[in-house]
Amino acid sequence: MSSHSEILQNAKTEQQRDLATSSKHSRNLHHLIIQLVESNSSTSATSLLDKISTIHELENSATVFLQREFARNCKLLDERRARVERMIRKSQLAFSGGGGGNCVEEMQRRCEVVDRELRILESTLANVGG
Predict the structure, then answer these.
(1) Does the model's pTM come out above 0.70?
(2) How many whole angstroms separate alpha carbon 32 and alpha carbon 38?
(3) Contact 47, 41 (CB under 8 A)
């Protein structure tokens, strides 16, 4: 059976070995990331990060712009819808006779008055000329 100090010594040795392996893996990962960034960019890694940051800023600006435009267009659409509804109500009121008589009947009456006045004028012109 192993003593407590031997177990402790083995644990420390194993921990140091694991730490060295972990450090080696970290260096390899860091090296691979740098190679990956450099292979995907003709510029330095910092420049690529700047480009990514710029892309995110542009995306945020575009999102804000589109949200404002959408809100503005919704407001305009709502205003136009209300205007069309008012026009429809006025038209329905006029055609239903709510505006002091039926619109169609009123137009018919006016046409008859104009027709009668034209006949009187025609008759007058025939008498004067003839």
Answers:
(1) no
(2) 10
(3) yes
DSSP assignment letter at 2: -
Do 74 and 66 form a contact (C-beta atoms < 8 A)? no
Q: Distance (Å, rounded) from C-alpha 49 to C-alpha 60? A: 17
**What does the alpha-carbon distance between residue 66 and residue 79 come to, in Å, rounded to a whole number?**
20
- 14 in helix, strand or coil? helix
Q: Residue 3 has which token pair?
A: 């003593």
Identify whether the C-beta of residue 67 lies closer than 8 Å to the C-beta of residue 59. Answer: no
Give the residue from 109, 115, 106 showing the smallest Cα distance to 98. Answer: 106
Sequential pLDDT tens for the chain (130 residues): 567 677 878 888 888 888 888 888 888 888 888 887 777 666 555 777 888 888 899 998 999 998 999 898 888 888 888 988 888 888 777 777 655 556 777 788 888 999 998 888 888 887 776 5
CA 76, CA 117: separation in Å to the nearest integer?
A: 48
Q: Count of alpha carbons within 13 Å of 104, Cβ hemisphere only?
A: 3
Alpha-carbon distance of 92 to 67, in angstroms, equals 37
